[in-house]
Design a protein that fits this description.
Blueprint (H helix, E strand, L loop, with lengths): L2 H12 L8 E4 L5 E5 L2 H10 L2 H8 E4 L2 E4 H10 L2 H13 L4 H28 L13
Antiparallel strand pairs: 1-2, 3-4
Helix pairs in contact: 2-6, 3-6, 4-5, 5-6
């Protein structure tokens, strides 16, 4: 794993502390469903959205073109251009298949979250010099 990947994963885990940078998922009546600050909240929100709520919550059509707000947020706030591009591609590919779209986007985000969790579990096991001799003790 490259240092850039580690930086992106760390950013995705911590998310944004600024409320103005949070991603807001709204229903068709423009009522707030949830606010997302990090990757875990994104996975939770995606799992709770109904199929009917998904597309209007993460995308909008402007001047005949689809704008994928969640992909832009992931790119600019969380810093993951790869995940962002994959989500945008899925939105274009499955815009007429909402069940498949929800499944694919959720799988992508959930896998990214699992990758992060695995990395965190791995680093928790690393304890340098805890019970070993320190170089200064030799």
């Amino acid at each position: 794993m490259e240092v850039t990947d580690l930086h992106v994963l760390a950013k995705m885990a911590s998310g944004t502390p600024n409320e103005e940078d949070a991603f807001t998922i709204r229903d068709k009546d423009d009522n707030e469903i949830s606010r997302i600050h990090n990757l875990r909240e994104l996975v939770d929100a995606l799992s709770n959205l109904s199929i009917e709520e998904l597309y209007p919550s993460i995308c909008r059509v402007s001047d005949g073109e689809t704008e994928c707000d969640i992909a832009l947020w992931i790119h600019y706030v969380l810093g993951d251009a790869t995940l962002s591009a994959k989500i945008f591609h899925l939105v274009e590919e499955y815009k007429d298949k909402p069940e498949k779209l929800k499944l694919e986007i959720f799988n992508l985000c959930f896998n990214r979250y699992l990758n992060f969790q695995e990395l965190m579990d791995f680093t928790d096991e690393i304890t340098m010099f805890e019970n070993d001799e320190k170089p200064s003790d030799i």
